[in-house]
Design goal:
Chain A is of the alpha/beta class. Chain A has helices at 6-13, 17-24, 32-45, 51-57, 74-89, 105-115, 132-136, 166-179, 197-211, 233-246, 258-270, 304-319; strands spanning 63-69, 93-99, 120-124, 142-145, 160-164, 185-189, 221-223, 252-255, 280-282, 299-301, 327-330, 333-335. Chain B binds a DNA duplex through helix 1, helix 2 and helix 4.
Chain lengths: 350, 350
DNA sequence: TTGTACGCGTTATCAT
DNA sequence: ATGATAACGCGTACAA
């Protein structure tokens, strides 16, 4: 099958290649008639400009990329939807990149910057501590989204980040549980790496307990299993099972992600617990499904829409030189729903 | 910042560019020592080959693309996970493309084939009737995945498709509901376009009713709303509300997607129905969350893992010339869980 | 307003 | 085993 290039089109139309180039790139210096003629032949012959060749020459591309670590996380796809819409509004095209949890997002970003003529990058998920040296290699502005706190040793002038204060919000949730009279609060926590989101939320849990003079019982801290997705429902289910089998006394379960909480709800139900009358259950994230399940899940609702909008807006502002790098913390909302209640309403267990 | 090209590296090492090219592309004809020296300087200077330039020259790329229509659908992200893993096994790289529901997937595919040197494409979602002419323009093999039936007028030699028989499986579900004694089965159906997945599942519903001599009551067919995601929980919620407000008598609700069913479950619960004792609820897809919610959802479980594996395997086989295009239908499983029961256990309503 | 010619960074071909 | 050089398809300075 014949795949015409810009030269072929030029030859067919009896014009020079630059004229064709001008036609397809909406340059002003071109006769309306010639342009129309060219556009017609382009359509007729099904000519498609080769993007690789374009990228090789172009300086300017009106394109950004989103680099997602863990695309199956509904939290990210929700963000993605909004980001895509914002980009369309600005007539920017969006390159979607997905990486495995063991790849280095900055390395990948570097490559794609070279390949495309990107003007900026949004990181979704991942990150925690990258060396300045590495970040310096990214020649376009970038924003770490859904990242509320960054390690102290990073140079904050080099990047933006937007997110909620995981530690504080987590504390908020646990304080709420305490206010309901809960003292034996089990926690299901993912990702035990230092400074990970999971760790921050665990620290918030500990903060709350300390603040209210409740002893931290290590036997109530249940890390998720490796190898099956730290934020998956299956992992929440399995980990909750371990909790139940441990024989520890608890009146509330706090899972550091809604997906984990949903998995836990099944384990608890199967073991005969009723939620919330026997045990209160709380999550974190505020993903869509949390509002529809029965009972609906008490959770920390991250302002997905606002965060996503602000992320893109900030990136565009930095690109156009309107703003410097920012470090924006959003307030999350304690969303009290049906899965939690006063401990006194609960049947004593163990 | 200095961004070295292949020429710079060559100069620094005192070799020709072709030698550097051979080093980075693992060509056999190269001295081990020179190669090592080159690789070292590459690392030292942080050289990254420009992919656009590569794609421009290269014939061969060991890369395929997945074109997803509706990335927020958990069903697709589940598939995606498996496809990614399979590609890694084969040492193929994977380009992820996302398109809006109103874009034409074949057009997008065409562009990216030109840009990259792809060897094949997997379509996830979308499709239903594309003209032969258009498909002819795709110069690499492609597979429509999760598509069980294709319009008669399409030339089946040009493409592969893999999926379940939506109409038949849907019928299976409704027959099961009928076997439980249900006659007044409301259906929540998405995407009213001809030959869409939603329509196929609706046809299956009608087939089942006809087969068992139950009159099809149009007042029990509830299409989802436009403009908010035809397969979203919110839409399931709203549509179920309409059903409830309609005052129609029903003993079972069948939603043509699990997400819709989950939304419906909340609407039903809020209206005072207990599931399944007051009303049975059934979904379709078998997404993860259906197994964890309470009550777990009776659904048609599509063999996600197998379908995804087979999709990639088939594509690779076609690429390597081992097989012709195939049209593979998988059996889905009627997964009976907690959300359905005999109608006689149910309280009469209306 | 239009056309010519060069170069973007890389790989493939052909010498050596 | 290695190097020089011609493409790849396009955008753009510059000339016309």
């Amino acid at each position: 099958m014949f795949e015409p290039t810009i030269k072929d089109i030029a030859k067919i139309c009896g014009v020079g290649v630059s004229t064709v180039s001008r036609a397809i790139n909406n340059h002003p210096d071109i006769n309306a008639e010639t342009k129309e003629k060219i556009m017609n032949t382009i359509k007729e012959y099904g000519y498609i400009p080769n993007n690789s060749a374009r990228n090789l020459k172009r300086v300017d591309a009106k394109a950004i990329a989103v680099l997602v670590k863990g695309i199956s996380n509904p939290f990210f796809t929700d963000m993605l939807k909004v980001i895509e819409a914002e980009c369309n509004k600005k007539h920017y095209s969006l390159e979607l990149l997905h990486i495995e949890s063991d790849e280095d997002e900055v390395d990948v970003a570097q490559k794609v910057i070279k390949e495309k003529r990107l003007r900026g990058i949004i990181f979704l998920g991942g990150l925690f501590s990258h060396s300045d040296e590495k970040l310096k290699k990214l020649t376009v502005p970038f924003v770490f989204s859904t990242v509320g706190s960054v390690p102290e040793n990073m140079n904050k002038k080099m990047f933006s980040n937007i997110g909620v204060d995981d530690r504080k919000e987590s504390e908020k949730m646990v304080e709420y549980l305490i206010s309901l009279g809960h003292k034996d609060i089990a926690i299901i926590v993912a990702e035990q790496e230092e400074k990970s989101i999971g760790m921050l939320r665990l620290e918030g849990y500990q903060d709350a307990l300390r603040k209210h003079n409740i002893e931290i019982n290590p036997a109530l801290i249940f890390p998720t299993e490796d190898g099956i997705g730290h934020f998956s429902m299956e992992n929440g289910y399995r980990t909750a099972k371990k909790l139940i089998e441990s024989g520890q006394r608890f009146t509330a379960v706090y899972a550091v992600a809604d997906a984990l909480a949903i998995g836990a709800s099944r384990a608890l139900t199967e073991a005969g617990y009723r939620i919330p009358s026997d045990v209160s259950l709380a999550g974190y994230d505020g993903i869509d499904v949390s509002n529809y399940i029965i009972p609906s899940l008490t959770t920390i609702r991250q302002p997905i829409e606002e965060m996503a909008k602000d992320t893109t807006k900030l990136l565009f502002d930095i690109i156009s030189g309107k703003r410097e790098h920012q470090h924006i913390i959003f307030e999350a909302e304690l969303l009290v729903q049906e899965s939690t209640c006063q401990v006194c309403c609960q049947t004593a267990i163990n």
